[in-house]
Amino acid sequence: MIRDCEADWVILGHSERRHVFGESDELIGQKVAHALENDLGVIACIGEKLEEREAGTTEEVVYAQTQVIAENVKDWGKVVLAYEPVWAIGTGKTATPEQAQEVHEKLRAWLRANVSDDVADSVRIIYGGQ
C-alpha cells in the first residue's frame, strides 16, 4: 500500500507506536527489515521517556532500540536514525541542542563499536523532538 501511494520512505518506531500501540523493539526491527527489503527508506525513531532520562538510562534505552534496528539492516544507505526523546514531544519541553548532540555523539560511538566505522561516519542522525 505504501508503494501504491508512491512513498519512498517510512517512519518506524515513533513514540506513539511504541508507547500507545505497544510496538516492541523486536516488532520495529522486523518492520525495518521488511521496509528495506521492499526498497523503502527508513527513518527509525529512538528515544527515552522522561522517567528514563531522569533515571540516567538514556544511553541504555537508545542503545537497546538501536541494536534491534541494526540487527535488521544490511545497507545503511537508506536508513536515518531520528533521536526523538519522548519527553520532548507535546510536553512543552525540548531537548537543548547540547542534549541532542550528546546523544547523537554517543550513538555514533555505539555504531562505531557495534556496526562499523563506515556506518558511524555516514549514517544520518537527526533530532525528532519538538
Beta percentage is 5-15%
N-to-C series of helices and strands: EHHEHHEHHE
CATH C-level class: Alpha Beta
Q: Which CATH-level-2 architecture?
A: Alpha-Beta Barrel
Alpha-carbon distance between the termini? 29 Å
Q: Please report the total strand number as a whole number.
A: 4
Explained architecture:
This protein is of the alpha/beta class and 130 residues long. The chain has one domain (3-127): TIM Barrel. It contains 6 helices and 4 strands; from the N terminus they run E-H-H-E-H-H-E-H-H-E. It has helices at 15-19, 25-37, 50-54, 58-70, 97-114, 117-122, and strands at residues 9-12, 41-46, 79-83, 124-127. It has a 4-stranded parallel sheet with strand order 1-2-3-4. The longest helix is centred in the last third of the chain and has 18 residues, at 97-114. The protein is globular and about 40 Å long. The N and C termini lie far apart (29 Å). 32% of the residues are buried. The model has no long low-confidence stretch (mean pLDDT 93).
Descriptors for this entry?
4-stranded parallel beta sheet, 130 residues, TIM Barrel, 46% helix, alpha/beta
Topology:
Elements (H helix, E strand, L loop, with lengths): L8 E4 L2 H5 L5 H13 L3 E6 L3 H5 L3 H13 L8 E5 L13 H18 L2 H6 L1 E4 L3
Parallel strand pairs: 1-2, 2-3, 3-4
Helix pairs in contact: 2-4, 4-5
